[in-house]
Amino acid sequence: MRLFKEPLLYFLLAGFALFVLYYSINPEEDDQSIAVDENSILTFIQYRSKAFSPELAKKRWDAMSAMERQQLLRDYYEEELLFREADSLGLMEDDYIIKRRLVQKMDFILQSAQAEPEKPEEAALQEFMAANADDYVVQPFASFTHVFLPASENSKAIAEKTLSELNEQSVSFSDAGRYGERFLYHRNYVERTRDYVAAHFGEAFAEALFRWPEEELDGQRWIGPIASEHGQHLLLLKERKAAYQPELEEVLGRVEQDYLRYQQGVQKQAAVKALSEKYPAKGDAALIDILQGE
Q: Closest Cα to residue 229, out of 208, 260, 251?
């Protein structure tokens, strides 16, 4: 037959034979299987804790009891099962939630690929702190105890009389509880910021407290009355400090953490920029100008 004289037929048969031989020697792995190994579990722990540190994940795994490990493995396996089945049903197509998860995974990969930032020198921290000075301002705060008199027609007159009594008897910080009524929040406030005080007493009270003339404050004499949203208050002010810019040593740990986080962000943006060269933006020129603007 002429068919058997065609060179193309022998070429196809030879190709098919090679194909069969290859897969008999190198069978395909079962794509349906779910890997249950240390690397998969540590990755799972990192996603769950939202702390992308293999070392920390390993410590958490090592610290788990047998029952906790079994539950974690079951959670991991069940999640993978449901994911595989959802994928086979095409549920990931045009799903924004899935898209966000994939973006998070890429973000995780980019973070994992970054070199660990070196411990910064003091000069670098000083420069970083100066560039972000507003983030480290210590807010004004005060320490005081107060005697509370609920709002009434004559509460201010009662407060003024009680003030005289407190000062005549030199009532101390610890003895203040014998006077006035129970307050909704606290009697003693130690190193509480202006915002904290305003949240409990109202803005007008906080304004009056932090503007009270310095010459009338000696830590021994009671001051007031100061009105709040609740009534009248008499205060023994032990400490009041205005907002100030701290020295680096005072907030060193916080500045160092912020600096390292900033450096990680710089590295990530460099990786994103490299990817943008692979996937250039196209479309509306005006929008792309905004996108690429500094």
A: 208
Cα–Cα distance, 189 to 141 (Å, whole number): 10
Q: Specify burial of residue 200 (Cβ count, 10 A radius: 0-12, 13-18, 19+).
A: middle
Runs of H (alpha helix) within the chain:
7-25, 38-49, 54-63, 66-88, 96-113, 122-131, 155-168, 194-201, 203-211, 252-278, 285-292
Q: List, for residues 59-96, the tens digit of each pLDDT value.
A: 999 998 989 989 989 888 888 888 888 888 888 777 88
CA distances from 181 to 147, 149, 157, 220 (A): 7, 6, 16, 22
- Whose tokens are 């994939």? That residue is 102
Residue type, 77: Y
User: At 178, is the pLDDT very low, low, confident or very high (cuts 50, 70, 90)?
Assistant: confident
* Strands of 188-193's sheet in order across: 188-193, 141-150, 231-241, 223-227
CATH 3.55.40.20 holds for 139-241: no
Which amino acid, residue 60? R
Q: How many residues does the chain have?
A: 294
How is the chain split into domains, by residue range?
Answer: 38-106, 122-134+249-292, 139-241
d(CA 115, CA 267) in angstroms, rounded, equals 9
